[in-house]
Automatic annotation (TrEMBL):
It comes from the Bacteria. SUPFAM superfamilies: 2-methylcitrate dehydratase PrpD (SSF103378). Gene3D superfamilies: 2-methylcitrate dehydratase PrpD (1.10.4100.10). This is 2-methylcitrate dehydratase. It catalyses: (2S,3S)-2-methylcitrate = 2-methyl-cis-aconitate + H2O. Monomer. Keywords: Lyase. Residues 21-267 form the MmgE/PrpD N-terminal domain. Signal peptide: none annotated. It comes from Microbacterium aurum.
Amino acid sequence: MTVIHHVRVHRSEENLAREDQLAYKIAQVAADPVAVEADVVDMIINRVIDNAAVAAASLTRGPVVAARAQALDHPVSRGGHGGTLFGEPNETVSSPEWAAWANGVAVRELDYHDTFLAAEYSHPGDNIPPILAVAQHVGADGAALVRGIATGYEIQMDLVRAICLHKHKIDHVAHLGPSAAAGIGTLLGLDADTIYQAVGQALHTTTATRQSRKGEISTWKAHAPAFAGKMAVEAVDRAMRGQTSPSPIYEGEDGVIAWMLDGPDARYDVPLPAPGEAKRAILDSYTKEHSAEYQAQAWIDLARTLRRAQGPQADTVFAPENVASIVLHTSHHTHYVIGSGANDPQKYDPSASRETLDHSIPYIFAVALQDGGWHHVDSYTPERASRPDTVALWHKITTAEDAEWTRRYHSEDPDEKAFGGRVEIRLADGTTLTDEIAVADAHPLGARPFARADYIRKFRLLAEPVLEPAEIERFLALAERLPELTAAEVQELNIVAKAGVLASVATPKGLF
């Protein structure tokens, strides 16, 4: 049965015992050798496929090319095999922290993998690159890799359920550093004391501001989780060498909670599995059908539905000259982070970066309403964003916070939790069209929940332009046998690009 841990700030003279600290309780969960249940294993396989899919689609994008080049400039450390790099031949490896970095950027670049939203936001699939890189480096088998990934998901999602970072303008990857360190600890079979030190350092080094997701969003958005994964690998290495970390990292009077989060009077209730309880958090997460911010998923589906309902007249009905206004009534988060409530003029700028457009629900809804769907490349091109009829419609779309949708967004009841809202389209002739959607079609409670076949279809769609057919089949065959893989097979759990794909883009030069 899940245990709720009550977390608060402690003065130094209270001398909070190590065993009573949240970082140690996280470490105890990671060190618990509980078996991974079959439905969790199946979902881990799905997410390994999902990560590889979105990484394949991003292999030639600038941030990924740069991160891969950095990794290639770092040879394998002396203590193991090294980790493979997405796109490169399996024989081309880098030191595990740099493999985690390069692959982490590839996975996050398109913002197209899994998500979990509660008190905080997260993409728990970000745990997989660092855990996989270490597994390859040390020669771990598939069963150990599965155990590590199950822990990574569990810890990040449990922290996300309880501790809000964004209201204090702290980036959500502050929950990823500790979870990845814990997952690596499980993979390696480390004791709780060692994992505790790694969790502390990983948190200490991965707290940063949310400016990376504000205004003109930069390429750091994709690098931030990769950095957290890289720091987690280094934190585990340091802890294994007997070194200690700031303590109590969460509860200390100069710690993260007291000075970065809710302050010295803060109280949090953090749920963690009890000793012997299976780690099942991954089953509460959900992936993306569309390459856009998760809160946009349901709105893309609703736009698709609205357009389909108008049939052949859709282009005329939704032509900008025939639309007076469109208001998306939605949750606090959607309104203030990716909606007009953010007061970011860039969210209405046709020349904005892809990263910014990805975080503009007015832009996304306009394009989805016109196109009847979403494409991970075509929907973001400068030509698409600057199309005059799109710009005209886009600037007629605003968002408004609705208390009921905010309540449902934060609901702990999975049957009630919602990430959509209600749209009101007021036409120039006085007609008003209204509709609503609670969750995306691909959500477990949606119209078409994603299953294994959908993950494989997504992988094929994104991989076919850059991988040979035989490589697609080779990877899928390995991934679907994940818990049975030998150490040698884990080292081949990689995607190798077609000849010439990686060479088709210039590799930037840097310091290394």
